[in-house]
Design the sequence.
C-alpha cells in the first residue's frame, strides 16, 4: 500500500511499470518546470508528459493534487512525508526517479530534494532536469549532484543537439531522432532490458529516442477550475 497525498485519496508516489520502480510525478509545463523552453525543435515543445497516459483525467487530477500539496505544505512536512513514503516503497527495488513528469520549479525545490535524498542513502535517485541553464539554480544543483546516491542529469533542450558546457554537472541525457536510444523503449521496461544506466553515475550520458509529437498540456485547465470553485 503506497502512501497518500496528505488530506487526499491520491497516491503520493507513482509506480511506473516501464521504469520498474516508483517515481515522483507532477504536472509538466512552463509553470511547474523551471527550465522550460518551448518552440520548434525543442524537447519541451513535444513533451511526452502531455500525451498518452499523462493525458488521462485521473492522471492529471493526481498530478495536480500532488502539485497543490507540494506548493502549500511546510518544508518539514514535505521532507518527512516523502522520506517515509520512498523508504517504504523502495525496500525491494532501491531505485527512484524524481520527475517522470515535471521538474524543479525553484532553487528551494532543489534544496528540499537534497534533504530527502540525503536521508535515504540506500536508495539510488535519478533526477533529470532542464533548470541547469538558469544561473540561480547552480549552487543548489551542485549540492544535490554531490550526493553519492544521486544521478542528476542535465537534460538537453533540443532534439539531436548536445548539451553545452559542464557547469560542475557532468551527467547528461539527450533525445535522438535517429539513434537507438534507451533499451527500455524496445524491451518494454528497465527490468526487461536489465538496465539501470540512468541511475548509474558511471554512465556520463544516456540517450532516449524521441517520444512523439506536440500534445496539449491539459492540467492547467483542471487547476484553473479548482481555483474558481
Sequence:
Amino acid at each position: 500500500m503506497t502512501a497518500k497525498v496528505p488530506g487526499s485519496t491520491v497516491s503520493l508516489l507513482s509506480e511506473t511499470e516501464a521504469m520498474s520502480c516508483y517515481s515522483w510525478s507532477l504536472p509538466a509545463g512552463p509553470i511547474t518546470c523551471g527550465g522550460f523552453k518551448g518552440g520548434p525543435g525543442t524537447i519541451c515543445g513535444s513533451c511526452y508528459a502531455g500525451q498518452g497516459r499523462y493525458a488521462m483525467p485521473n492522471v492529471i487530477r493526481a498530478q495536480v493534487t500532488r502539485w497543490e500539496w507540494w506548493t502549500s505544505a511546510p518544508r518539514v512536512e514535505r521532507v518527512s512525508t516523502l522520506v517515509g513514503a520512498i523508504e517504504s516503497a523502495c525496500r525491494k527495488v532501491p531505485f527512484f526517479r524524481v520527475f517522470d513528469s515535471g521538474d524543479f520549479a525553484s532553487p528551494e525545490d532543489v534544496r528540499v530534494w537534497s534533504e530527502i535524498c540525503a536521508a535515504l542513502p540506500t536508495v539510488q535517485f535519478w533526477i533529470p532536469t532542464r533548470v541547469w541553464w538558469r544561473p540561480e539554480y547552480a549552487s543548489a544543483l551542485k549540492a544535490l549532484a554531490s550526493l553519492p546516491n544521486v544521478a542528476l542529469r542535465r537534460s538537453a533542450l533540443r532534439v539531436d543537439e548536445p548539451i553545452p558546457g559542464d557547469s560542475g554537472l557532468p551527467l547528461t541525457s539527450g533525445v535522438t531522432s535517429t539513434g537507438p536510444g534507451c533499451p527500455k523503449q524496445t524491451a518494454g521496461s528497465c527490468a526487461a532490458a536489465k538496465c539501470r544506466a540512468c541511475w548509474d553515475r558511471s554512465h556520463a550520458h544516456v540517450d532516449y529516442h524521441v517520444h512523439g509529437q506536440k500534445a496539449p498540456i491539459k492540467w492547467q485547465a483542471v487547476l484553473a477550475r479548482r481555483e474558481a470553485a
The longest strand covers residues 95-101.
